[in-house]
Amino acid sequence: MEYSSPILNYAQLAPILIVLGGALIGVLIEAFAPRSSRHSSQLFITIATLVISLGALLRVRNEASVDAAMGSVAFDGAGVLFQASILIIAILSIFLIADQENFTALAAAVPGSDEERDSLRSDLRVTEVYPLTLFAVAGMLLFPMSSDLITLFVALEMLSLPLYLMAGLSRRRRLASQEAALKYFLLGAFSSAFFIFGVAYLYGYSGSITFVGIHGSIVNGSGNDVFLLLGIAFISVGLLFKVGAVPFHAWSPDVYQGAPTAITGFMAAATKVAAFGAILRIYYVVFANAQWQWMPVLTVIAIITMVFGSVVAIAQRDVKRMLAYSSIAHAGFLLAGVIALSKPGLDASIFYLFVYGIATVGAFGVVTLVRDSSGEVTDLNRWSGLGKRSPLIATVFALFLLAFAGIPMTSGFIGKFSIFSAAYESGSTSILIAGVLSSAIAAFFYIRVIVLIFFKDPVEDGTSVVIPSGLTTITIAISAAVTLLMGIYPAPLINFIQSTAFFIR
After folding, report:
1. What's the gap between Cα 43 and its chain centre?
2. What does the alpha-carbon distance between residue 390 and residue 387 come to, in Å, rounded to a whole number?
3. How many CA atoms lie within 13 A of 20 on its CB side?
C-alpha cells in the first residue's frame, strides 16, 4: 500500500490556520500568563489575529481553486466574500466583547454562591471568551468553504461548541443565561443529529461525500431518489436551525435574550453569514439540478419564516427578543436569495448578509449602553424617552432599526430591493409578495420603537445611557457609517461582489 502525502494549498488555507493559531496562543495565555495581564494580552492577540487573517485573505483573493485541501475545501470568489464578511464582523464584535462589564467574573461558579460573590468582589474577568471566539471564527471561515460533508460537519461543530459556552457567560441574570446556553446546546445537538442522518442518506444515494460526487449522481440520476429526498431534508434541518428559520427557530429568542449582549450580536451576525454561505454553496452547487424536489418546500419555509418573525416581533416587550424575531424574519428574506438560484440571487445574498451583519452588531452595541444600577435594561417600556436622555445614541439606534425595516437611504433598503428583485426575476412571485408584506409589518414595530424613544417622556426609574468605552464607540460608529454609506452609495461594493462572487463546481 502506497502512502501519498496530502496536497494542501497553504496560502488559501492561511486565513483559517492563522485564526486557529491565534486561538491556540490564547489558550496558552490562559494557562501560563498572570491573571492581571491576561485581558490586555488576549485582546491584542485576538485583534491582531483577525486583522492578519483578513490581510492573508485579501492577498490570495484572486487565486481561485477548486481544491484547496484535497477535495475538502473549495476556494472561490463567493467563499472569499463570505470569509471577509465574517472577519470584518468578528473584528467589530471583539471590540464589544472587550467591554467585560457584560461577562460573569467566574463562569464555573454556581449562581448566587459564595464563590461567585468572592469573584465579583475580586473583579475577576473571564478572558477565556477570546480564544473561544477565535475557535468559533475558525469554524465559521471553514463552513462556507467546505466541499465535502464531513468537513462541513466538522466546521459546523467547531463554530457551534464555543457559542454554546459563550451564551452562558452573562454577568447578570445568570440562571437565564445558563438556561439559554443549555437550550442552545440541546437543540443544537438535535440539529447535528439530523445533519448526520442527512450525510448518511446522501452517501447512500451517491456513494460519495464530496459535493462534486453527489452533484454528479444527481445529474446522472444513478441513485435512489428516496435517499436523495431524505438526505436533502435532513441536511436542510441542520442548516436551517443555524439561521433560525421557522420551524427550527425556537432557540433564538431565549438565547438572544439570555446570552451576553456582545455575544448575541456576534452570534446573530457572523453565524448567519457562515450558515447562509454553506446553504448557498450546497443548494447552488450540489442540489441545483434537483431544485424541483426542494424548492417548493423551501419556498413555504421562507414565506412562513418572514411572516412569523415579523408578526410575533410586534408583541415583544424586550428589545433583545424583538431583535431575535427580527432576525428570524431576515432569515426568511435571505432564503429568497437561495430560492432564486441565480447569479443575481447569489450577489444579493452576499450584499444582504454583509450589511445586515454590520447593522446587527451596531444595534446590539447600542443595547449594551442602556443600563441601570443592576446592569443592562432591555425592557422596551424603560427605553421611553431615550432620545431626550441621549439624542445621539437614540438617533444611531433609530438608524439601525430603519435599516432593518428596509427604509430608503439605508443599507437595508438596497439589500431587500436586490434580493427581492433576484427572486422576482427567477419567477418566485409568491416570495416577492410575502416579502413585501412582511417588510411592511416589520416596519410597524421598528417605527413603534422609534416613536417610543423620541416622542414619549422619559420615566425616572434609574435607566440611563452610559458613556461607551473607546472600543464600543468604534464598533457603533463604524456600523452606523457603513449602514448609511451602503444606503447612499452602494455601487462600488455591489460591483465588486458582482465581479467576484462565483462558486466553483
Report:
1. 21
2. 5
3. 13
In a domain, 505, yes or no: no
Q: Which three cell numbers stand for residue 14?
A: 492561511
Which residues are CB-contacts of 430 (< 8 A; sequence separation ≥ 6)? 299, 303
* CA 443 – CA 407 distance, rounded (Å): 8
Q: Which of 359, 149, 170, 403 is nearest to 265 (CA)?
A: 359
In this structure, the dihedral spanned by the alpha carbons of residues 141, 143, 145 and 146, taken in order and rounded to 10 degrees, is 140
Cβ proximity of 415 and 487 under 8 Å: no
Please tell me the distance from the alpha carbon of residue 19 to that of residue 137, in angstroms, as a whole number: 7
Domain for residue 3, yes or no?
Answer: no
What is the distance in angstroms between the CA of the first residue and the CA of the last residue of the chain? 31
Q: How far apart (Å, rounded) are the C-alpha atoms in residues 262 and 170?
A: 10
Residue 1 pLDDT: 54
How high is the pLDDT of residue 32? 85
Q: Is pLDDT at 61 greater than 80 in this prediction?
A: no
Give the integer Cα–Cα distance in Å for 189 and 181: 12
What is the gyration radius of the CA atoms in the chain, in angstroms? 22
- Closest by CA position to 190, among listed 115, 248, 113, 110: 248
The 10 Å Cβ neighbour count of residue 251 is 20
For residue 16, is it within any domain?
Answer: yes
Query: Are 399 and 480 in contact, with CB atoms under 8 Å apart?
Result: yes
- Quickly tell me which residue has 464607540 as its cell: 473
Number of domains making up the chain = 1
pLDDT band at 361 (very low <50, low <70, confident <90, very high): very high
The residue to which cell 459546523 is assigned:
156
| DSSP-derived secondary structure for 97-117 | HT-GGGB-S-TTSPTTSHHHH
Please indicate, yes or no, if residue 26 is contained in any of the structural domains. Answer: yes
- Counting every residue written for the chain, the total comes to 505
Which residues make Cβ contacts (< 8 Å) with residue 36, sequence separation at least 6? none
SS3 for 164? helix
Give the range of the structural domain holding residue 198, as residue numbers without chain letter: 10-500
